[in-house]
Specification:
Length: 257
Amino acid sequence: MESDRQEGISEYQDECEKHGPFTGRLFSVLGREIRGGCQSCGDDRRKADEDHAEKHAVMLERMRMAEKLGGAEIPKRFTGKTFAGYEASADRQQKALAACTEYAHNFHSHYADGRCLMLMGKPGCGKTHLAAAIACHVVTETKFSAVYRSMPGLIQDIRATYDGNTDYSEGDVIHTLTRCGLLVLDEIGATKSSEFELTLLFTVINGRYERKLPTVIVSNLSPKELHTAIGDRCVDRLREGGGIVVGFDWESMRGSL
């Protein structure tokens, strides 16, 4: 304490209403004495400040995640879908779930390789559930962005730009879809494609292919039917680099009338 006294610092005894007797530090600054106060009270204030900062950080993170999920435009029905919520009792269902879970959990590796994933087969088997779960995982657990679009919705987005009443252009839509970290394209081949639709689909898939970006395709078609519906050039680009195909060939999980 000798050096402290030389620097104008000493101790004093006092009692805190909350913590009882304590030894405080007395600072002499420019002829004035400043009492340091109860150290336990100071610790309480620091802890309260830390708790407030932590809660604020959590709130900001939730807002960031909400914004990212909103930007992904995952349909409301599928926003909360998870891998844990996917019913997989049969062996084929478990294999499909395992393949999609692996793709999401190792997305950094698949992203680096530009590896695409194709979920194909019968309707009502949970393809969109798993595709949405992949997109949600990418958005919330990685640094990458993800965007979901159904093919009919994408076409509607593009056509809406033609009347000049939107605040975005066709180029803006293409730019977003060809540059996001992951693109999920649902309902591929759901209807007979026009030349316009085939050109649009090739533009998006080829744009991502050139940038080596992964795409998840969801379709009720078989692999052979997909070639006919969207063309060999699109399929070849999706398959290049070890593109993964997961089949869904069991009865609908939605039940029957």
